[in-house]
């Protein structure tokens, strides 16, 4: 399984469990905690693209330049 597929599967499991937990709990505090975690879903889904393609040569060179201090 590729890194991308593993990442997507893991993220889907996490948010599926959060949905089930939210439905099963009546506590307002717990629901608020889950809501705050779910706010990151869009960001996590966007970052899945990082696993689709290898980093560009320009990005690799800029990261290496930081380590030469």
Compact summary:
It contains 5 helices and no strands. With 69 residues, it is mainly α.
Derived structural class:
mainly alpha
| First-last Cα distance | 37 Å
Helix amount, in percent? over 70%
Strand content: under 5%
Mean model confidence by pLDDT: 79
- Helical segment count: 5
Radius of gyration: 17 Å
Order of helices and strands: HHHHH
What can be said about the biggest beta sheet? none
Number of domains: 1
Which ranges are low-confidence, i.e. pLDDT below 50, for 5 or more consecutive residues? none
Task: Give the overall shape, derived from the CA principal axes.
Answer: elongated
Number of strands: 0
Structure, described:
- 78% of the residues lie in helices and 0% in strands.
- Helix 1 packs antiparallel against helix 2 (28-38).
- The protein has one domain.
- The radius of gyration is 17 Å and the shape is elongated.
- The chain has helices spanning 3-24, 28-38, 41-47, 49-52, 57-66.
- The chain is mainly alpha-helical.
- It contains five helices and no strands.
Keywords:
69 residues, mainly alpha
List the helices and strands and how they pair.
Elements: H1 3-24, H2 28-38, H3 41-47, H4 49-52, H5 57-66
